[in-house]
Amino acid sequence: MSLECIEVRDAVPSRIKDLYHHSFPLYERRPWPQQVLLVEEKKLQLLELVLDNRFAGFIFFWPLSAFIFIEHFAIDHTRRGSGIGTQAMQHVAAVSGTVILETEPEDQGMHAQRRIRFYEKLGYKKFPFPYQQPPYLPGYPAPNMYLMHNGQPTGAADFEKVKNEIYTSVYGIDKG
Fold it and tell me: Which three-class secondary structure state does DSSP give residue 56?
């Protein structure tokens, strides 16, 4: 049972749009036309996850200066628990090196706690500094999140550099 991670370069399949909308609440996602445009412009990369010739999920990520930033990662609910997420994250780390991602704090409930444990089992660590995800849409709050990483950057200077690059490149906000 081998997972295929297929790079999507042009037309984004509707099954990815459906899972994107199903997996993330409105305030945690970019409007779909903007998401597709970023993929078409090759700023945002997209991997479609396929297992046994069946759609299994996706990863949207940004190739940045010294790391990749996983913006959205979802496994189809019918395929969860089969090791697809682990295989996908191992593939991305093997190909890309340092990976950074956002996750909700443990106090956001059981799903957030499970998600953090999943990443920790893969060797990810939380940066020990406060982080807020900029809102995708006007009028929505900036939720408190963790930035997690699989590499060595752990100090305050590393965190600020990573955070500022994410704010600028991903969210279009200059927090310099």
Answer: strand
**pLDDT for the residue numbered 153:** 60
Q: Where are the domains of the chain?
A: 3-169
Q: Which pTM does this prediction carry?
A: 0.93
- What is the C-alpha separation between 69 and 62, in angstroms, rounded? 5
Q: List the structure tokens of 130.
A: 């406060």
For residue range 5-52, list pLDDT tens digits in order. 999 988 899 999 999 999 998 988 999 999 999 999 999 999 999 999
Fold of 3-169: Aminopeptidase (3.40.630)
Q: How many CB atoms lie within 10 A of CB 54?
A: 10
Measured between alpha carbons, how far is residue 36 from residues 32, 85, 143 in Å?
6, 23, 24
